[in-house]
Amino acid sequence: MESRIERIKKQLHGASYKLTPQREATVLVLLENEEDHLSAEDVFLLVKEKAPEIGLATVYRTLELLTELKIVDKINFGDGVSRYDLRQEGASRFHHHLICIECGKVAEIQEDLLGDVEKIVESRYGFTVKDHWLTFHGICQSCKSSGNDSKK
Amino acid sequence: MESRIERIKKQLHGASYKLTPQREATVLVLLENEEDHLSAEDVFLLVKEKAPEIGLATVYRTLELLTELKIVDKINFGDGVSRYDLRQEGASRFHHHLICIECGKVAEIQEDLLGDVEKIVESRYGFTVKDHWLTFHGICQSCKSSGNDSKK
DNA sequence: GTACTTGCAAAGTATTTGCAACGTC
DNA sequence: GACGTTGCAAATACTTTGCAAGTAC
């Protein structure tokens, strides 16, 4: 079976881009840290371990390229930094996020909970939905059960 | 009946802050442009018309203060700028946004469509929701009906 | 007078751009 | 050899901070 990186390579080729070693290293870092929400700087530091000669600008350019191709989504959780999150293969909508205001942890919800809401938006507001971004702020399970009241 | 600005003044006082002329001018600009999604720079330019001597740093400080008090929400639509949006009085959740990918217009949905979704998140993921941010990307009614295919 | 607030300038971050050099077909 | 790509340095954009001066009670 074809690997994820192979399919990404084809997507790049389809758009007349090459999967250079720098780009490959960047994509690998994203795949290996799929659960995280890395900033460009984070990605840069991790890529450097594989390819020490890479420049920060290249990482930015690669991330921009991947965003354009909808391979990753650029998100912003309100701190001053953009973060990059791999989109599930073939997903037409971006997944949801849960941010804990106690511990700061960011969890993902891959199932799409907005089907009905999108129908309402379409019928009531005449707006054809193509994609969505949904983030919840609240208290995660482990902070609740540990009765954690230490403010981070 | 008490005006909105009066109530905001009380909120500030309740948190031991003053409604200085600069802060008042800033709040007025936000009230007068409630439909828009102004950046700090936008607010600064508009406030300057009322209070020419104000500094950009003061606008930033005021917006930060208002964000802290939950009078405004700081949002980011993916261009590099933070934007500031008045929260409805007494609303426990932030309102939703519809961004048209044709014309770029940003519309607001004040009714809360996420009640059921939040229940699912609470029961299925054990996450207690305190607030949410929901943005849709798609095609607005007027772009659809005008058959607008001019890419901006 | 004390404590909060302001304007300005400087500093700080994050991100983008210019450009010569490199690599690949 | 043309063209996409890269690394570095410089430039840009947005936001925050330091500080002396101003203001309100």
From TrEMBL, chains A, B:
Keywords: DNA-binding, Repressor, Transcription, Transcription regulation, Zinc. The keyword Amino-acid biosynthesis does not apply. The keyword Repressor applies. Coiled coil: none annotated. SUPFAM superfamilies: Winged helix' DNA-binding domain. Belongs to the Fur family. PANTHER family: FERRIC UPTAKE REGULATION PROTEIN, ZINC UPTAKE REGULATION PROTEIN. This is Fur family transcriptional regulator. It comes from Sporosarcina highlanderae.
